[in-house]
Amino acid sequence: MATPLAIGIDLGTTFSVIAHLDANGHPKTITNSEGDLTTPSAVFFDDDNVVVGKEALKAGAIEPERLAQFAKRDMGEAVFSKPINGEELPPEVIQSYVLAKLKADAESKLGPIDKAVITVPAYFNEPRRKATQDAGQLAGLEVIDIINEPTAAAIAFGVESGFLNANGESIKTERIVIYDLGGGTFDVTVMEIDGQNYRVKATGGDVYLGGIDWDYRMVELLAQQFMHKHPNLDPREDAVGMQRLLREAEDAKRSLSARESVTVMFEHHGQGARVTVNRVDFEHVTADLLERTRFTTNSVLRDAGFEWSDVTRLLLVGGSSRMPMVSRMLTKLSDRAPDASLSLDEAVAHGAAIYAGIRLAAGAGQPQQTTIQNVNSHNLSVLGVEAATGRPRAHVMIPRNTALPAKSRSQFKTQKPDQRSVVVQVVEGGDASGNNSTSIGRCVVRDLPRGLPQGSPVEVTFRYASNGRLTVKARLPSLDREATLAIERDSGMTDEAIQDWGQKLKSKRRKN
Ligand code: ADP
Ligand code: MG
Quick one: CATH architecture of 211-285? Predict the structure, then answer.
């Protein structure tokens, strides 16, 4: 039997990439059937045909209601945020179409592929990771592992520039900041690599900040200039005009990464205009967006307990990091030149392919010692009431960016005399007053005996396992009474649903 190919897939919010290790063990991106290195993560549902990638975007510009985009944001949710042709689809199904195209296009070049490593953001919780794994299964792939995008990027940079050996082992302790500005998301991760131990020290970001926001600012610039020439004609006024303008804007934005100014010819309702945008102006109107990434980068570094002088490497990933304003800002911030030596949109997939190679070699009998330690990405708190003010108050049990597994215990008190039950309200994220937090469950100790004095101690224990499962225990030591709550988050598709969809998708693929 031939050794299986080492395949790595970067399943992105806006673009996805598939790579393999060539005969010399070097990572190579596999071009898709359109000849491109990256494939838009866009799926268009025609009546009896499903189109993925660039063609999906083109078709979607005319019939937007049949187009699914940014499904990655909904991974871990029960259904995709927008019904397609009136049908509610699990986000896994949409992502599986993207994976199936990457797989099919790669197979036409390399022959059958059945195993792959798929990457996810460091902040993905367990349900989102499982959803990603399920999407792979639906696409007919055996997902040999899921790894974090920043970890994959670090492996690619490390192996390529020599600070890691071919097994992904560091020569000395590395403290790495990975700044990833993609199409629809921004994230920054601080990681320590010590030999084969990868420890995420802190991670943070903004799931609603990315290249698309820069595109919208460019749309404004273009539209203003267009309206300067045709005052009563706003090209943003209808959906089709807007789609076209957005495409022009993205193009212009990319050009400005290489040139100081760009000229766009644009037509709307038979009226044409030639508009020119300078890089300086574009940077001016997007300065606040960049500032948000600067702020987050600094706070994640602080969460990790590092100063810039502790950092050994600063890596750039994500297509939007190509904008010169990004590296300029980071150079000033960190007082060092960021490393953008690898292709910004391929590094993650390349790292995943290298990691797939390591995993497959391990399966073939070589020792495999790489360990990866993660952190939780949101505060986990108990929501209570402040006695003095009666206002809600979140008591943080496990702060965000705590290394997993984690355990924590706190003492609370009953609020009233003769209290018959104790309710521990568990929330994720949010501020000190519990605003914007997500409720994830209640742990209740019921049927307490009469006459329990006010202020009786209540001991609360949180246990957060590496697999993301949270167990909460509430105990009244004076009565030796307790209640336990195992929080099983909404875990996406059931095994039966995966089976059913798997069959459906398989027969569809045969037809196409
Ligand atoms: P994701 O991982 O979020 O799917 P990518 O890392 O592939 O996204 O980045 C896609 C984004 O990068 C898009 O917004 C695209 O416009 C932007 N981008 C790609 N090339 C350039 C460039 N040369 N200059 C500016 N932005 C770019
Ligand atoms: Mg990405």
Answer: Alpha-Beta Complex (3.90)
